[in-house]
Amino acid sequence: MNFNQEKLPNWLKRRADVTPDRIALEFEDKAYTFIDLHLRVLETAGRLSGQGMKKGDRVALLIGSHPDSVIIIHACFYVGLEIVMLNSRLTNKELIWQIRDAQPGWILTEAAFTLKAEELGEKIPNVPVFFKEELNRLEKVPNFQALDEFSLQDTATIMYTSGTSGKPKGVIQTYGNHWWSAVGSVLNLGLREEDCWLCSVPIFHISGFSILMRNVIYGIRVILLESFKEKEVNQAIKERSVTIVSVVTAMLNRMIAELQDENYPESFRCMLLGGGPAPLHLLEECIQRGIPVYQTYGMTETSSQIVTLAPEYSINKIGSAGKPLFPSQLKIEVEGREAVPGEAGEIAVAGPNVTPGYLNRKEETVQAIRNGWLFTGDIGYLDEEGFLYVIDRRSDLIISGGENVYPAEIEAVLAKHPAIFEAGVTGMEDEKWGKVPVAFVVLKPGAALSEADAIAHCRELLASYKVPKKILFCSELPRNSSNKLLRRELKEILENKL
Amino acid sequence: MNFNQEKLPNWLKRRADVTPDRIALEFEDKAYTFIDLHLRVLETAGRLSGQGMKKGDRVALLIGSHPDSVIIIHACFYVGLEIVMLNSRLTNKELIWQIRDAQPGWILTEAAFTLKAEELGEKIPNVPVFFKEELNRLEKVPNFQALDEFSLQDTATIMYTSGTSGKPKGVIQTYGNHWWSAVGSVLNLGLREEDCWLCSVPIFHISGFSILMRNVIYGIRVILLESFKEKEVNQAIKERSVTIVSVVTAMLNRMIAELQDENYPESFRCMLLGGGPAPLHLLEECIQRGIPVYQTYGMTETSSQIVTLAPEYSINKIGSAGKPLFPSQLKIEVEGREAVPGEAGEIAVAGPNVTPGYLNRKEETVQAIRNGWLFTGDIGYLDEEGFLYVIDRRSDLIISGGENVYPAEIEAVLAKHPAIFEAGVTGMEDEKWGKVPVAFVVLKPGAALSEADAIAHCRELLASYKVPKKILFCSELPRNSSNKLLRRELKEILENKL
């Protein structure tokens, strides 16, 4: 009788059956109902199937935020393909690494990424590259049958995240992970017929992707923006009946600045603020202006939110990320024991939205997930009433404009330069991006290097948001007795310097 | 890694942690927050545990609709007991049959049922009877530990239902069944912070019990009434910010009569109408008066709703029970094949809210649940767009001269007559036709009507084989505790009369 608990009807297909005529998606001046979307997805899925793609195969997507991408994602689900969501801001070196690791059978991309895609095609000749613009010319399977059901244990998506080591790991997200994430969120935020979630965060990140999942699971309208522009987001909230927006601190900052003295309409009910601890003054300003901020904590491994502050606590517990969503659990560990209230330690989470593990990384999986608990590496504490306060992400994580930047990855790139002996990276406060990376560099004896050259070197190998904004040359890096780099001290040196 | 999908945190305990200070329950002039409820439940669970009750044991509850019962139910969950919910309106003969079938270790009841309980104690001496009024005098386990998690596969409740055979069967409802029922409902009806569900249906039936589950899973306020009184229900809707009420046709009839020319407030957003096909004229009156009726179809075996009409179709698809809730599925079968649109057949349903089977009834279970589909025995059809129209419960089907006659259809026609308040139809043996329909009619106060006039009215609106051959006037119709018309009893009355 396990049939019942292991499978669910295909989400979009079911949605197109239950509420076909509701608006599903708006993009620029176009609108798509759920039945529109379903029919387009069916068409696309038939063509993917015509290329020999079948259930259990893996495809990498290098696509932007627009309706075609939404259609392609669901088409992959209709066929039963595992999707590797590639971050289009990465350099080709980074993308190639991920593709070689995930070994997809195909790369599906779009004309906007032609240059990138052509190089990928050259470097990884065994993985065919398709352009979405050419999909219509592809052969279709005559009687394509979409999956009627999704097995909750099956892999839906793989998203890469770097972690402390600096070596990216593919996080496996099952259909069950996405489903339970949506259910956990709805039991906290509620659901109204008139709900409309604005998506201006990248859909290749879980923050944006999870909005597309809620779209079909809840049957709500989603407004998709190609990228974040504060003016456009504010306009959509004011004029297009948006009720919920997902943001990170840097976005919220810019939205409030652009808003000036105006207010959001009463119908706007949730500013879901993720992506790391938010400065208190910003939260206070939001309260004063009546902006309904819900602080939240989540990551790729938890398929978006796992801890969110319930509305009744937005004032009394300002600065807290809240309590675990209904189906999930949370604890703080210090040296193998549970921390007492107020004591900081490693944040561990559990629940049906937590990843089963990392692709091809048994050891890292076993290390991160113990007895069903995911040890996040993030530092926080619970207050007397069990509210989570996140102190810092993984000690050294730099969150820059909502993107995770891992110092170790930048350090490794810098160290590749023939003139550089070693490098240490830390985050520096930045008005626009929240934080930006800054590098400390020790040169090899007798070597010479300019800041501009070091930056140019990084630019070749790293997505632009990871490139250090400043290079500080020094004679040695602060290290502890076991020679571990003390990034915390880099931060202090930096603060003293500025 | 299955840990994640098989277990959820203890619902009330989690709710008391996440939103402790919200009002959970109101009864008469008393109100309980979730933390209040949790602390009382913990106390009671400790005493049950003190009697030797432990996880996996079974207890039968013979209790009314009041806060103590809510506390006892959750206390059983805290210990991990399987609950047999006994219908307090049954005769002792019926109760004894059920208790012997379910073999609970204990019966827990209350002073109001002393007479019943004493006889049960005599007839089934091996099952000890406890009174809730005496619980406080019982020994408590010193350091009682409530279950932290519920396994979704575990049995939560057993409710007896007669089914077509007339022999009661214990329907097993797992924690998973109750959870998914609540989730399926929320994805259709939505969820608002200010939601308040009024429960005036018996909590020993799934209609009432499921409200108690939504209470803790959603974290919403529930107003509990000891029994259905139309004046009290209307008053609660008008004055106590009720947003959702579960009703059956007879209740709705009486509520509308009592409401007279008044209206419900705007905030009242859902009249969830279950318990069998509703007469069209009643639905039309509700539309005219702006009462937001959601027709629904469900049963003990589906842990309440499984098919519900989405709000946008309340007018266009009037009379339909709607489409399956998001995680569930529906089909109509005729002689082993799927029916075509418009063709009536047996309603089959599947989904994670469907019972794993009947207690101690392997054969009936295998017969009813095939390949994950529950064959309900009810008759209905799907229209071209897949909306379910429930024609009748199979047991009530009258086959007259080879033609299928569905009582509900005739009842609806009779109820359209201005002098008729409500009607019930059953079959009578007939030499010529095998069976013929006979109607029981309740007139409106002060109205007068002859048998000939009533028959003439039907003849205008129905094919001749559907016209009742006899009209019996009466002051009320036999209904069960959830106000469902008992056509079986009509049959008995008829046979005694003839």
UniProtKB/TrEMBL annotation, chains A, B:
One GO molecular-function entry: o-succinylbenzoate-CoA ligase activity
Keyword DNA damage: no
Pathway entry: Quinol/quinone metabolism; 1,4-dihydroxy-2-naphthoate biosynthesis; 1,4-dihydroxy-2-naphthoate from chorismate: step 5/7; Quinol/quinone metabolism; menaquinone biosynthesis
Domain AMP-binding enzyme C-terminal: from-to ranges: 409-484
Domain of life the protein comes from: Bacteria
Keyword Nucleotide-binding: yes
Pfam families registered for this protein in UniProt: AMP-binding (PF00501), AMP-binding_C (PF13193)
InterPro entries in alphabetical order: AMP-bd_C, AMP-bd_C_sf, AMP-binding_CS, AMP-dep_synth/lig_dom, ANL_N_sf, ATP-dep_AMP-bd_enzyme, MenE
E.C. number: 6.2.1.26
CDD domains documented for this protein: OSB_CoA_lg
AMP-dependent synthetase/ligase domain boundaries: 13-359
TM helices/strands, residue ranges: none
Record keywords, A-Z: ATP-binding, Ligase, Menaquinone biosynthesis, Nucleotide-binding
BP-aspect Gene Ontology terms: menaquinone biosynthetic process
Protein family: Belongs to the ATP-dependent AMP-binding enzyme family. MenE subfamily.
Name assigned to this protein: 2-succinylbenzoate--CoA ligase
Encoding gene per record: menE
